[in-house]
Each structure stands twice: as structure tokens, then as C-alpha cells.
Amino acid sequence: MEQKVGREVAEAEFERFVDTMDLDVDETRMDGEDRTSYRDLKERILRAIEHGHLVVDEKGQPVYTPRAGTQAQPIIFHEPTGASFMAMDSKKKDQNVAKMYAVMADMTHLDAKVFASMAARDLKICQAIVTLFLG
After folding, report:
1. Whether residue 95 has pLDDT greater than 80
2. CA distance 13 to 55
3. Please, how many CA atoms are within 13 Å of residue 22, restricted to the half-sphere of its CB?
4. Burial of 30 by CB count in 10 Å (0-12 exposed, 13-18 middle, 19+ buried)?
């Protein structure tokens, strides 16, 4: 895949996103497992920015354009609200995927079916973004 954005620019955009959304990404306060997970999420997001599929808009919100499937329109990940977290309550205890899709649906103002039918390569980026918010 062709790199469209330099690494330094991608990192600056990532920092603008986490700063604007006030996400706690201080690695010094993470244990080893959390640090490894965070670095994996960050790398996935940085690569999406570098390849031009993910941008951070003027409000600091991630906007992802899927590469495959039927969802060709950019997906805006709005800052989660209490309703975003409450969306998980409508799912049973062991329905972790359904809970994730419910949160993604609320944050993007899309139906959860969009994520259920999304190609794995696109879904991984969307899940990485939401996981950072839920951090």
C-alpha cells in the first residue's frame, strides 16, 4: 500500500486527536500489557493515517474511509457520550462483539449492521479508534 502521509505528520495528527479528545495515553502510567496493547492500537491508526484512509478533522475527530465492502462513505467517530456507553447495556454480558458494535454505532451515528458487514481490514481500524476512546 502506498504511503501518502509522512510518519511525522501522521504522529502529529494522532497527537492532535488524543489531545483534543483528552484521551489518557501516558505510557508511564500503563502496565506492560496495557502499554503493548496501546502501542499496537496506535501503530494501526498511524498506518491508516499514512495510507490516507484515516484523517483527523478540524474538530479532532477521526474520520475513516473504508477500503472494501459497501460502506464507501467516510465514517466520523464523534466523541462518545454517556449514551455511547449505555448502548453496551442493551447487550448481554457475554456479547462483547455486539457491545463493541453498539458503541461504534452510537459514536458514528450509523447502524450497527454497517460494522457487522464490514470487511475485517476496515473493522480493525474502527475497533482501534473506539478502543482508544474506551481506554
Report:
1. no
2. 8
3. 2
4. middle
pTM: 0.90
Q: What percent of the chain has pLDDT over 70?
A: 96
Report the pLDDT value the prediction gives residue 36, as an integer from 0 to 100: 95
Task: Provide the 10 A C-beta neighbour count for residue 22.
Answer: 8
- Residue 130's contacts (CB-CB under 8 Å, 6 or more residues apart) are 77, 100, 103, 104, 107
Quote the percentage of the chain above a pLDDT of 90.
77
Comparing C-alpha atoms, which of 95, 99, 117 is closest to residue 107? 99
Coil, helix or strand at residue 59: coil
Alpha-helix runs per DSSP H in 21-119: 32-50, 82-89, 96-108, 112-116
**Weakest mean pLDDT among 43-47, 104-108, 126-130, 131-135:** 131-135
Residues 84, 100 contacting (CB under 8 angstroms)? no
For every residue of 61-81, DSSP letters joined together read: -EEE--SSSS--S-EE-PPP-
The three-state secondary structure class of 122 is: helix
* Domain range summary for the chain, segments of one domain joined by +: 7-134
